[in-house]
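Section handout 9: paired folding examples.
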Amino acid sequence: QVQLVESGGGLVQPGSSLRLSCAAVASTSPFDVYAVAWFRQAPGKGREGISCISSTGEDTYYSDSVKGRFTISRDNAKNMVYLQMNSLKPEDTGVYYCNKPRAPFWSWGQGTQVTVSS
């Protein structure tokens, strides 16, 4: 099992940047053998996967809504996954979570709130 802690969110203006971090703490499983994804839950909507990175970091995936603006990366030595978010838009507002890309999921962390507003 892996415990996840997301951080780095905040209130920013459109066009700004943020870097989210996902820390795998208290891991009883080797973190570096798993692909990891970022999910976003917009107000009143379900959780959607927006980006994913392979266990080695060689392969990445982005949803159309964030492609070209967001960059996912990982540092397996630190058990960390990052999401660099540039050119933020109001529609990027939501709570961001990290986890495995598909079930069975690890326990969900508390997420980190991103609010993009002028």
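Moving on to protein 2 of 2.
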Amino acid sequence: VRLVESGGGLAQAGGSLTLSCVVSGITFNDYAVGWFRQAPGKGREFVASTNWRRGRVYYTDSGDFVKGRFTTFRNNSGNTMILQMHSLSPEDTAVYFCNADPGVVGPTTPGRYWGQGTQVTVSA
């Protein structure tokens, strides 16, 4: 199983970035996928997830800090998970990780498979 993130980089406060995660080695339609992040000196934090089963989304969740700023969706035909981030602030600076599991991915239930992470840095 391989998860590869891309799209990180430097943004100014108020700006936007879009992260992508391409997943291989699994039947993507049968897996929950999500995003976590880890800021310097802090623990890993849940961002958002989409849990997919039998051809439809049955559970989605996102962290409180998302507050309508971030949108996550999946492209099943491309085995890709997208995280669109808007109205970025310096507090969003972190390494963002893609995460997948055949079960559920949620705030307290990270999945078993992880990407290597992509750095997002937001300047004031």
